[in-house]
Design goal:
The chain contains nine helices and six strands, in the order αααββαβαβββαααα. It has 200 residues and is α+β, with helices and mostly antiparallel strands. Helix 6 runs parallel beside helix 7. It has two domains: 149 residues, no CATH class; 44 residues, no CATH class. Helices cover 51% and strands 16% of the residues. Strands 1, 2, 3, 4, 5 and 6 form a six-stranded mixed β-sheet that branches.
């Protein structure tokens, strides 16, 4: 049975919608999506999520259809999980309207272009708000999230964490009696007497 026949019999699966959305975003140049994700080979298992690249930042598209219970809560858990696992720095949670599940395969692309989704962006700093957006609006949402990721507290948090680690290591090393001598040798710093002799 072909994918088209399965779609008409049971409705489209979320994975199909994710791949189609990734394909559309790739065609507009918004995301760079690997060809292996957007190919529609029959009999192949579709990925649960689509992973793309936006200006060097890995992005996950995680979509669910609105006809499931607690769809937003499930998406929030999944999107944060993708970030915690290090799969991507940005995750886009998308709630597809129920009518897309029963969209005719031939009309799916056009339907997705005209549909309003519920969208939420997730980063290490947290998640934004759920907003209504169409395909075109998703571009602006992703751009703002990228700028936020680059300029906001994610970078500052990493710098602060590094500073605290250096201070903790310094405090530990300063308490060891042999540290000064070892560092002097490693850094090739002369003793005070040696420095005086050279100056004379």
């Amino acid at each position: 049975m072909s994918r088209k026949e399965r779609a008409s019999e049971h409705g489209l699966r979320e994975e199909v919608l994710n791949v189609k959305l990734a394909e559309l975003l790739s065609r507009t140049g918004l995301l760079s999506i690997p060809e292996s994700i957007i190919k529609e080979g029959t009999g192949k298992r579709l990925p649960d999520v689509a992973i793309g690249d936006y200006w060097g930042v890995r992005v996950v598209l995680e979509g669910k259809i609105a006809d499931k219970a607690n769809v937003r809560g499930a998406l929030e858990k999944d999107c944060f999980g993708r970030i915690e696992e290090g799969i991507a720095a940005l995750a886009i949670g998308i709630v597809y309207p129920t009518e897309l599940r029963h969209s005719d395969w031939a009309a799916l692309e056009q339907n997705m272009r005209n549909t309003m989704f519920q969208v939420k962006i997730f980063t290490e700093a947290g998640g934004g708000e759920w907003v209504d957006s169409n395909l075109e609006g998703l571009s602006a949402i992703l751009r703002r999230a990228y700028e936020s990721l680059v300029h906001e507290d994610v970078v500052n948090g990493a710098v602060e964490e590094l500073r605290q680690s250096i201070e903790a290591a310094s405090a530990t090393l300063s308490g060891s009696p042999g540290t000064a001598q070892r560092l002097r040798v490693l850094l090739m710093v002369p003793r005070a007497e040696e420095a005086d002799e050279k100056n004379e």
